[in-house]
Amino acid sequence: MNKVKIGLIGLGNIGANRHVKYLQTMSNVELVGVCDVIKEKADAFAAAYNTTAYYNYLDLFEQSGLDAVIIAVPHYDHTPISVEAFARGLHVLCEKPLAVHVNDAQKSIDAYEKAKAKHPNLIFGMMFQERTLPFYKKLKEIVSSGELGRLTRATWINTAWFRSQAYYDSGDWRATWAGEGGGILTNQCPHNLDLYQWLFGVPVRISGHAHIGKYHNIEVEDEVTAYFEHENGMIGHFIVTTAESPGTNRFEIVGENGNLVYENEKLVLYKNRVSTLKHLQETKEGFGNVESWYTEIPVKTDVPNGHHVVAEKFIQAVLHSEKENELIAHGTEGIKGLTIGNGIMLSSFTKRMVDVPIDGDEYELILNEKIKSSKFVKTSRADVEADMSKSFT
User: Fold this and answer.
1) How far, CA to CA in Å, does 108 sit from each of 153, 267, 307?
2) Residue 251: exposed, middle, or buried by beta-carbon count in 10 A (0-12, 13-18, 19+)?
3) How far is CA 24 from the centre of its chain?
4) Which is deepest, 112, 217, 227, 384, by most CB within 10 Å?
C-alpha cells in the first residue's frame, strides 16, 4: 500500500476547517469520499476537493473502497460509527471525545479489540492534537523525567474558554443533553482532561462541582470546579468556565524538588536546593522556606504541531504497522480523560465524592434521565456572526 484511501465523516466546524484541508497536502493519502447528512454540504466539499459525496456513513463504507476513516461528527455518533468501522476492518481516527460517556467509549474499545483478532494491524487513533503543542510536550518531558521528585499538587485554572450566548444559539444541538451530552467538559475541555491524565494518570477519587447554565441560557454546565486525589497522594484541582473574559490558563505542578508554572506562553521552574519533604522533617527552623532558584525553561515553539501531525502519525501507522507505538494518542486512551469528566459530573449530580473507576451505568442512567425529562426550550439563531475556526485557538 503506497497510499491510504481515507474517508471523512462530518463536515462541520472541525471537518471543514481542519481535516479536509490538511488531507489535501498529504502525498500518501487519497480522499475517496466525504460524508455529511446535509446533502448540499457534502456535494459542495466533494466538488471542491475532487472526491465523492456520501450522505450516509454506511454508503461510504460500502461503496468508496476506503482503508481508513476520520470521524468528525457530533459526539453521540462516535460510538456507532467507530463500532461499524471496526467490524469492517477499517482503521479509525476519532475526534475528541471518544464518546459522551464511558459505557459508549468501552463499546468502541471492545469493538476494536475484537476486530484486532481478525485484523492484527488495525490502527485506532484519537485526535488529541494538543499533546503536540510545544509547551505541553515540555511539561510532559519534565514531569516524566522525575526531576520534580514526588508530585504533591497540580492545579489547572483554564478559564480561557469564553463563549457568548450567540455561540450557544448558533446550533440547535449545542449545549443540550440530547444533542451534545454536556457542556464545557464535553465540548471545550476533552483536550485538557486528556492532558491532565497524560501527565499524572487518572485520579482514584473525584469531587466535582458543576454549575448548570449559571451564566448562559443552556441546560448543561458552563462552570466547573473539581478536586482530585491520586493513588500516590498527589491532589489536583481543575477549574474551568466559558464565562470569564479575559480568561486565565495557568498550570501549576508542584513536587518536592520544585514548582513548575506554565502561564502566558512562559514556562518557569522554581527549583529547590533540597527536597521540601526532606527539609520540613529535618530543619530546626520554624518558618524558613527551602532555598530555590528561578529558571525560565526555553521551549522551541517553531515545530510542527496540530491536527495534521496527529493525522500524519496515524497514516504512517496504517502504512507501517510497526509504527503504531508512534501514534500521538492511541484510541483506547480516549476513555481516560472521559472517565475524569464523567466522574466530575457524576460527583456533582450525586453530591458525593466518587471512586474511580466510576459506575458507568449510574452515570448513563442519570444522563438518559436528563434527556428524557428535559423541558429546556432551545433558542436557535440564524443571524449569529461566528467564525468557528476561532474555536481552535
Assistant:
1) 33, 37, 22
2) buried
3) 24
4) 112
Question: What size, in residues, is the chain?
Answer: 393
Number of domains in the chain: 2
C-alpha cell at 115: 476486530
Range of the domain at 181: 130-303+337-373
141 and 122 co-located in one domain: no
Answer whether 188's CB lies under 8 Å from 390's CB.
Answer: no
CA distance 120 to 237: 40
Task: Count CB atoms within 10 A of the CB of residue 91.
Answer: 25
Distance CA 189, CA 185 (A): 5
User: H-helix or E-strand containing 268?
Assistant: strand 266-272
The answer to whether residue 391 is domain-embedded is no
If you ran DSSP here, which 8-state letter would residue 214 be given? S
| Residue 248 CA: distances (Å) to CA of 161, 184, 209, 301 | 9, 15, 19, 20
Helix (H, G, I), strand (E, B) or coil at 339: helix
Closest among 336, 325, 322, 319 to 26, alpha carbons compared: 319
- For β-strands 124-126 and 53-54, DSSP reports them as unpaired
What single letter denotes the amino acid at residue 293? W
Q: What percent of the chain has pLDDT over 90?
A: 93
pLDDT attached to residue 98? 98
pLDDT tens for 245-292 read 999 999 999 999 999 999 999 999 999 999 999 999 999 999 989 999
**How far apart are alpha carbons 96 and 187 in whole angstroms?**
9
- C-alpha 322/C-alpha 364 separation (Å) is 37
Confirm if 67 and 99 have CB atoms less than 8 A apart: no
Helix (H) or strand (E) segment spanning residue 314: helix 307-319
| pLDDT surpassing 60 at residue 388 | no
Q: 338 Cβ partners below 8 Å, 6+ apart?
A: 97, 98, 99, 101, 102, 105, 190, 193
Give residue-wise pLDDT tens across range 44-82.
Answer: 999 999 999 999 999 999 999 999 999 999 999 999 999
